[in-house]
Amino acid sequence: MTQIRTRTIAAAALAAACALARPAPAQEHTHMHGAAPLPASAQGYQWTPADAHFMSAMIHHHAQAIEMSRLAPAQAGSEQVRILAARIINAQQDEIATMQRWLRERGQPVPEATGGPMKMTMNGMEHEMLMPGMLTPAQMDELKQARGRDFDRLFLTYMIQHHRGATSMVTELFGTQGAGQDEAVFKFASDVNVDQTTEIARMQRMLAALIFESPAP
User: pTM for this one?
Assistant: First the structure.
């Protein structure tokens, strides 16, 4: 009896192991507006509505950083700030093109690269929403009026705020169940997090030096 019972337990364990090893069926997702199921990515992971929202929102977010940076050539008092602004423009223009292409290839709406609020439809009504860290109209006006050291101080302060908003968007994406698994989205979001965290540290050093540096007589 003991031998028969042992064989029975072993057979049950083998069946359970085979069931666990069997690939799970692909999870189906739908478009943000309830259209047909989304196709799987080439890597076997399906993108989600949260991925598409992240890419759309980050286009608006990047566009405002570019708008801020384009003020620097005429208004910055420091060559260091002008160089930083130029780098932000070059990097984020390329990233906007990447995000727009990603959305277009998946049949999603492709927003224009404008730095204003993102329009969202909720309960049949259209709402405008600023992404985390984005400048309010009043803050943008303040930056546009500033010159020299005042511009440098405001630019660094507001761009740190802006970058922190972007990293919080990445955190929210990766904290959403099923999101960030598409290879292109994962790589892009990870790069944004690393690059902007690095730039935050650089801008903090620049801002500290500006604050504690005695202005020229």
Answer: 0.74
